[in-house]
Amino acid sequence: MKRNFLFICSKNEWRSRTAETIFRNDSRFHVKSAGTSRTARIRVSERLLLWADVIFVMEDHHKKRLYEHFAKAMADKEVIVLDIPDEYPYMNEELIAELEDTINDYDDDLE
Question: pTM of the prediction?
Fold first, then answer.
């Protein structure tokens, strides 16, 4: 059974959007992305959080925001902080490599 992975950054323009793009056709899981900012391309919502089996946030402050604004939806959610700073543009090669390494390592731990 495929798991639902949600990637979150601030504006859903670079980091989380890159993750969604590169994993969109991955047969191991379903992916979506969102941002915590009011100006995010796609804003995180309770519905998205409830959909997710695992939530990957780029930085600690994203996790904090989720628990502050969506405490009920975040109950019992697995949240992984990737520690990827906001310094990579969309589809940057280094960003892609870091995301692939992290998610592949995470997925290997599930098997």
Answer: 0.94
